[in-house]
Amino acid sequence: xxxxxxxxxxxxxxxxxxxxxxxxxxxxxxxxxxxxxxxxxxxxxxxxxxxxxxxxxxxxxxxxxxxxxxxxxxxxxxxxxxxxxxxxxxxxxxxxxxxxxxxxxxxxxxxxxxxxxxxxxxxxxxxxxxxxxxxxxxxxxxxxxxxxxxxxxxxxxxxxxxxxxxxxxxxxxxxxxxxxxxxxxxxxxxxxxxxxxxxxxxxxxxxxxxxxxxxxxxxxxxx
Length: 223
What we know:
Blueprint: H1 20-43, E1 47-52, E2 67-72, E3 93-94, E4 109-110, E5 117-125, E6 137-145, E7 155-174, E8 184-192, H2 196-204, E9 208-213
Antiparallel strand pairs: 1-2, 3-4, 5-8, 6-7, 6-9, 7-8
């Protein structure tokens, strides 16, 4: 028998830059590297900003203890909020409400001369105030006695006295037998300075005061 013809053995050759598979592999590695760099760069866009640790009440001085650091991505909006890199001004005051956890807008801060509210402690019905907490935003209604009235329940009807004011504190409950026979609680609200005198006049005249939480206001569990 004659031997079968044999095929010459093929030799391994080093890959060439002209090999399309090699080029595809290199491009894939480059694409993955670029994508990874973009992800890392995007994550590094976070900047440290200040958020309210608890409710910030209009009229109060701002302190570091009321703030907490959060790292966020804001893009071009960074200048609108208070950054951690900035030193807190010793005379910085809160001009409008900032809820717990919210970033602190620069527009919510100012000087003492810009404050237009002051704390006013009033006695209100305990039931209407049962869910209020520091930072709650409320409307204040005053129900004044009718002119010449001598009866304890003869009122003219509730009128809106203050709109969207912040509850600054709850000094403490005080049981008392008022005109309606219900318990009362002392609540401190940040009232506009130009409204304080008229509200005090109504209260001194025997008006009944009720606080109504604004839609979406921060509240707590009822007592």
